[in-house]
């Protein structure tokens, strides 16, 4: 039961981040989300399709641990994420995060 609550929470955080990242296309994305029967499953499946680094960056930035059943975890700033992955700067971590959000949006919109 707790795992499904954590998945629902993580899906909500991901959807919110994707919507914020898309800005101008956010309304089309949210309209597409309304057509899904099980939106949480679609979001988690799209998240699972990301590569390991993209998954970790999203989970670190949004505050959940996918490796521990989507349990809540501390929210990390881009600087902390950049340090964890030995990236050159926080902007690189931000780019990875935004690119992963766009991939999730494309996956969800393509599955509708």
Structure explained in plain terms:
By secondary structure, the chain is mainly alpha-helical. The protein has helices spanning 2-22, 26-33, 39-48, 52-62, 78-84, 90-111, and strands spanning 64-65, 71-72. The protein has six helices and two strands; from the N terminus they run ααααββαα. A two-stranded antiparallel ribbon has the order 1-2. A hairpin with a 5-residue loop joins strand 1 and strand 2 (71-72). Helix 1 crosses helix 6, helix 4 packs across helix 6 (90-111) and helix 5 (78-84) crosses helix 6. The model has no long low-confidence stretch (mean pLDDT 91).
For the termini, the CA-CA separation is 27 Å
Average pLDDT works out at 91
Oligomer type: single chain
Unreliable sequence segments:
none
Report the order of strands and helices: HHHHEEHH
Portion in helices: over 70%
- Enumerate the strands of the largest sheet in spatial order, edge to edge or round the barrel: 1-2
């Amino acid at each position: 039961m707790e795992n499904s609550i954590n998945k629902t929470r993580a899906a909500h955080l991901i959807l919110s981040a994707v919507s914020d990242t898309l800005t101008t296309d956010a309304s089309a994305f949210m309209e597409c989300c309304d057509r899904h029967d099980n939106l949480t499953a679609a979001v988690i499946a799209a998240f699972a399709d990301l590569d390991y680094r993209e998954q970790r960056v999203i989970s670190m930035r949004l505050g959940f641990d996918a490796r521990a059943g989507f349990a809540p975890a501390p929210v990390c700033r881009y600087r902390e994420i950049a340090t964890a992955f030995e990236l050159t700067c926080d902007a690189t971590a931000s780019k990875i995060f935004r690119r992963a959000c766009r991939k999730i949006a494309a996956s969800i919109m393509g599955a509708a």
